[in-house]
Amino acid sequence: MHTRHVLAPKRDMVERYLAAASDEAWERFRSDYLALLEQRFQNDPGPFTSLADRARDTDVYLGCSCPTARNPDVSRCHTVAALEFMRSRFPDLDIQMPPGTS
Q1: Which H or E run contains 86?
Q2: d(C-alpha 5, C-alpha 23), whole Å
Q3: Which of 11, 21, 34, 95 has the smallest number of CB atoms closer than 10 Å to its CB?
Q4: What is the Cα–Cα distance from 37 to 21, expressed in whole angstroms?
Q5: pLDDT tens, the chain, 102 aa long
Q6: CA separation, residue 28 to residues 34, 40, 55, 58 (Å)
């Protein structure tokens, strides 16, 4: 949310989730975020493909501030959802999920 990266969620999505974090709020955030990524991919797959190409040549790390006091469960991080999205679009990539996630 603090960058213009293709995988960055919209600030209002994050703020809405963190304002009332719950199972339901997470599922809504995750659904909205994955829909946003899909829309971006459909509009311009280039940045996603560039990221995947880079990951085929070298290790790529996606970072975030989670877990935090407001979001202590790393499995409820947009980075995990972004990795799931990239895995679905580029199944040949060796994507390693953070410990404690699927």
Answers
A1: helix 78-89
A2: 26
A3: 11
A4: 21
A5: 446 789 999 999 999 999 988 999 999 999 999 999 999 999 999 999 999 999 999 999 887 777 677 777 778 889 899 999 999 999 999 999 888 776
A6: 10, 18, 29, 33
